[in-house]
Amino acid sequence: HILVVDDVAKNVRLLADVLTARGYRTSTAASGEEALACIAADPPDLVLLDVMMPGMNGYDVCRAIRADPACAVLPIVLVTALDPEQERVKGLEAGADDFLGKPINQAELMARVRSLLRVKTLYDEVQLQRSLLQAWNATLEQRVAESVRQLERVGQLKRFFSPQLAEAILAGGADDPLRS
Known about the structure:
60% helix, alpha/beta, single chain, 6 helices, rod-shaped
């Protein structure tokens, strides 16, 4: 799922059409504010973000996205017609991951999209593995706590019976003293 953000409808349509034709699900926003609302409602896997927009420019949107811990690794590609040399530093400082110059070169667009989505997929898989490990750790901690409680009960049992009888009871080899 790729969010395309640009205040020029033709640019949005071009990018969305190219991506949709390649099998990607796209959504669009015409402003920075709309982009942030879209991200909150239906988080994308990548954002293509125009730099020059009225209101919130691309740098402001990028900073706002990075301010949200849930979007810390959301790939952001700044799309600009401005001088890439000067804009690259501003974009990196704002939290962008990559850049595309206008007019868009479709081969370059697709290469960058595939690359960033591959990284995002790997990150998502690591997060899933981390969640599974946390769940397994919780289960293991629970089992250890239960084993400790059982050992404490065994210790109490050994205080009331001779050690040999307690071991026999625990091993299941002792006759039930209550049976006649």
